[in-house]
Sequence to fold (604 residues):
Amino acid sequence: MGVINGPAQVSENAKNLPTVCVLCSHNCAMRVDVENNEITKVRADESSPLTRGYSCNKGYRIAYYVNHKQRVEYPMKRRADGSFERISWDQAITEISSKLKAIRARHPGRSVALAGIGGQGNHMDGPFAIPFLMGVGSDIIFNSLGQEKTQHPLVDGWMFGASPESFLHADAEHAEYLLMLGTNPVVSNRGERATETIKELRQNEARTLVVVDPRRTETTRRANAHLRIKPGMDVYFMLGMCAHIEREGLTDKKFIGKYTKDYEKLRQVLRGIDLDEMAARTGLDVSEITRTAEGFARAKSAAVFMDLGAEQIPYSTLMSYLVRVLVLMTGNVGKKGGQVFLPMFMAKSPTMAKPGFPKALASDIPAIPMFSPFGWLSPNLLPEEILVDHPARIRALIVEGANPLVSYADSQLHREAFKKLDLLVVIDPAFTETAQVADYVLPAAAGYEKWEHAGFPKGYPHVSAQVRPPVVRGPDEALPEAEIYHRLAREMGIAPKAPRALHLLAKGARSPLGAPLYFAALGSLAAMRGGSGKAIAARFVFWLYETLGPLLPSPQLVAIWGMAHAFAATRKADVVRQYSEVARMKNPFAVGEFLFQKILDHPE
Fold:
């Protein structure tokens, strides 16, 4: 038996329940009505301090995310003929654990890998998926962030010494001059209340919006200028911008002298850029590049708003670097209306400028830290890491919250690679194309059927933490990912049954004096069992889940409880800025408990 043994208990008929839209990374706050255990009405949540009653059209279709014909309602095992049979949870956990242990007995830990985790706005799986992988002895994770976002924390670590849970955001709401690259926020809602922000910007004659996009979009129609660049040529546009600003002496020399080093080396490179060649490569007139560069440099504040269209192109890491060069050379870093570092709701972690993370076997490409000191690999490397002729190649793969055969590059190569695996397990609410070729398919509760957390950064100046309760009951045998990983960890011996002392100490863990006692016992008892640091960390997490979890509204919430305490311990000043009463709290565990309760009290 597990810690969770059935679906969340919620009313089948209820009104005005707080939740979010999980159909993009912004996770706009919504309110829903439920009838007969189905979401029937959806509206934007005006009580949300972030989105304030705003949502794009996608938010009103979230009911279809829960109810559809592809729902996985019970564990399934693939037969020899390719069909699937229904099996029990006990059989699924026992057989999968046995196969994983057999693979680990013959091969290195990295032969077991994980693909996915962290579906849009559903991030409560990560705090358990990563410790499970660590307990197996692996650190190989393939995530879609690795094909679109990881270049940013990599460059921020190199250039600023930034920790991986901080992100350089455009203060679009206050920028006098806003340059948009690779995004159509009027439709895709990238950014906080995107349509309203663009409307306010457009109506103010003192402000300028320039959109760089190969095609006309709903956003370009609202811009002061639309630069119709050739697809994928954004890096040459940025080179041209930076070169022109340097050549014309439009840099913020005082800022450069005070806050940068080695600029002279960069100056020489920029002065060698041929602006006519950059224009030819981009398909733009030279005047379009120079006019944009001069407007950006002369504005009182300017910011660059970049998204997927400029992140999934050739030289995307260089793009990330050049964006930062542009805002640095014009003095637009760390100022209102410019580019500002925004931390996420998690502990401050060390700078990862020169991380020692794993590298892909076939290509030697290193993993990149993002959100935490744990490296992420691009999913486009996955097939060759399975097919490579190496004793440590991937032989077992857990796919969770992802569908590689559709969403990762080269579907046919992925399909061929999956045939070479000794074990493929899919954990998902839906019977996806990847699930259809798996050895085992395990039913996860959908994002509205369990307690969930949206960890995406929302935009300057907000450090946000939103935890939402379930609004509908899921299938009887669907389980939260946290419970699935806990059962596997228990069966594999990664986290055997927790000591009785932890159960006793957990009863006082919500108090400022009981919390440090509980934490200390948890850490010491986990360490006493021996093993590597990763093995101890895995034991710590799953014993936390097993002992404190049942005393919370949901066991999954131990992840948020731990994050609240970690944030309070490392970023108290951020808490004090929002809640002045925290300033007089001397015990950091009191601050952590204060934060945790605030989050529970305000699911909006």
In short: The mean pLDDT is 93. The chain is about 40% helix and 15% strand. The longest strand covers residues 14-20.
